[in-house]
Amino acid sequence: MNIKQINYFIAVANHGSLSSAAREFDISVQAMSKAMTDLENEFGENLFERTHQGITLTPLGETFCRKAEPVSSSFCALEEMGETHAKELSKLRLFLCAPSFCRSAKARSDMAAFFDKYLEAETEVSIGTGEAGLGVIREGGCDALITIGPFDHPDFDCFAVGTVPAGICMASNHPLARQETVSLKQLEPYRVISSKSFDHFNESILVTYQKDGLKSPVVEPPAFDMPRQFYVKHAVCFMVNIASLGEMLPRSTMIPIAPEDAKAIPICLITLKGAKPPAYQRMEKLLRGRS
């Protein structure tokens, strides 16, 4: 006896017909009939009365049906539990620690599609501040943070996936906007915008250049003053320089940093120590193999 026979039996009992039960499970009437005959042979007694009007249960069949129905329901619940657990294991939840930019939704969608394809995972990528990301990962709401630049904290592991080039994002009307590259020397007269939400969280691109002796004045304007600083005062932002991301801010341009000042900026995955779900482990293995 097996669960398939039990489910077939319940269907025959409910429909009063072998053919109707067979249609429910998309099998032939002959296959359904054989399964019921095999089941009756195990009991050594009929479970059904077969007449021209259809099929009815014998007293033994009625007793068996009462016991079979909760067994079938419990087995279905166990199957659903297994499927749900497997689905949860295949989920990959990432949190990109970055300010929103013009094509951030597409970038996150492309990232999710990449991992869906190569990991056979169900990936979701959120975006927000580093502090928000830490809160989410501590609460179990994501598997890993993605940061531009390393993050050093005793409760977290930091895995450098690779590096990206940095660039200078400036308004299209900026005096340096037509340059092929921009050196730190050329930037000295212009303000550099620092973000309270992002440049105090980890070793960001700006922090990296500040450690290396950036001489431009650094300002940290409130949100309402950011447009004036960027579009009127010609302040600039250090950002990743990835052409496929497109325009980072409206009416802006990205100028590569001159070769003599260029630095490779690490892209990092941040995880809680001792908390690396299976989907994340598969992702890290994939990325290590591609590096």
TrEMBL record:
Against Gene3D superfamilies, the record matches this protein to:
3.40.190.290, Winged helix-like DNA-binding domain superfamily/Winged helix DNA-binding domain
Q: Which PROSITE patterns match?
A: HTH_LYSR (PS50931)
Q: Which Pfam families match?
A: HTH_1, LysR_substrate
Query: Boundaries of each HTH lysR-type domain copy?
Result: 1-58
Check the record and name the InterPro entries matching this protein.
Answer: LysR_HTH_N, LysR_subst-bd, WH-like_DNA-bd_sf, WH_DNA-bd_sf
* CC terms in the record's Gene Ontology section: protein-DNA complex
| GO function terms (MF aspect) | DNA binding; DNA-binding transcription factor activity
Coiled coil spans: none
UniProtKB keywords: DNA-binding, Transcription, Transcription regulation
**Domain of life from the UniProt record:** Bacteria
- State the family named in the UniProt similarity comment for this chain: Belongs to the LysR transcriptional regulatory family.
This chain's protein is named LysR family transcriptional regulator
The organism encoding this protein is: Eggerthella guodeyinii
The major lineage groups are: Bacteria, Bacillati, Actinomycetota, Coriobacteriia, Eggerthellales
